[in-house]
Specification:
This protein is α/β, with parallel strands linked by helices and 278 residues long. Helix content is 29%, strand content 23%. It is built from 7 helices and 10 strands. Strand 7 (157-161), helix 5 and strand 8 form a beta-alpha-beta unit. Helix 3 packs across helix 4 and helix 4 packs parallel to helix 5 (169-186).
Length: 278
């Protein structure tokens, strides 16, 4: 049975796909995880290991081949309007203005919807662009619109699949800070897929490190330093070395096994998000 404190619970989740030669290609093997309500959890792992597949299963877009996903104690069978997904490629509606995109899906009176839209236009720094169309916006501004549209609906769970991956470095830094500020105010439960270790360390309460495909959970790494996090602090660098070591590289990108490894003893214990006991 899932833990009563878990918002999201994964029990023995496997996923395989049919291969070209008729055999099965295993992508996920035995994923057991519990995520408490209001947590910000990042999934990292080697390219192609199955991070996005796992996120799509938890969101209800893909079924698990074996095992079960529960949210609020109920099995996940399909997507849910209170659990929203933000993709890497912007999915704002090109035929709607910024304000219309943010207000898409809102209920209530016209005055109530307008008040919510105005609030998120301001919170996301989109003042002066409410009447603009996506073609008139930069990539970073489109992602702000998408984030505002999701948060305006007050989701219980927010799934984010490398949403800042296509943006330039400075825009990513700004959007990370804005995302954390909004998350601290709204407190949805967040599952965030990224290939960027520093992004995970800046954002997450807990980093779930996945193995190469077929992916299993290699380790859960608690990120204790308070936000905003200093990337030059000793505690931060130790966590960075730990996660990189679990991914098989050192901080220069060399093979960790060849350099003796860099995962150190005394690293943080597993946090409340945890691998479920079998």
């Amino acid at each position: 049975m899932p833990s009563p404190v878990a918002k999201i619970s994964l029990a023995g989740v496997w996923r395989s796909f049919a291969g070209e030669a008729g055999g099965a290609i295993s992508v996920l093997e035995g994923i057991d995880l519990e995520v408490p309500e209001g947590a910000f959890v990042c999934l990292v792992g080697p390219s192609g290991c199955g991070k996005s597949t796992l996120l799509n299963i938890v969101a209800g877009f893909l079924p698990a081949s074996r095992g079960e996903v529960r949210i609020d104690g109920e099995p996940v069978r399909r997507p849910h309007p209170r659990r929203l997904f933000i993709f890497q490629e912007s999915s704002v509606f090109p035929w709607l203005t910024v304000a219309e995109n943010i207000g898409f899906g809102l209920t209530g009176s016209a005055a109530e919807r307008r008040e919510i839209v105005d609030r998120y236009v301001e919170r996301m720094g989109l003042q002066g662009f409410a009447a603009a169309y996506p073609r008139q916006l930069s990539g970073g501004m489109k992602q702000r619109v998408e984030l505002a549209r999701a948060l305006a609906c007050r989701p219980d769970v927010l799934f984010m699949d490398e949403p800042f991956g296509a943006l330039d470095f400075l825009t990513r830094l700004r959007l990370r800070a804005e995302l954390i500020e909004l998350w601290q105010r709204e407190r949805p439960t967040v599952l965030f897929v990224t290939h960027d270790v520093d992004e995970a360390l800046q954002l997450a309460d807990c980093v779930v490190v996945l193995s190469p495909r077929p992916a299993s959970i290699r380790r859960l790494v608690a990120i204790a330093p308070p936000r905003p996090r200093d990337p030059d602090a000793a505690a931060y660098l130790e966590l960075r070395d730990l996660v990189l070591g679990l991914l098989g590289v050192d901080r220069l990108g060399h093979d960790a096994a060849a350099s003796g490894g860099i995962a150190r003893p005394g690293s943080p214990p597993p946090p409340r998000p945890r691998v479920r006991p079998r």
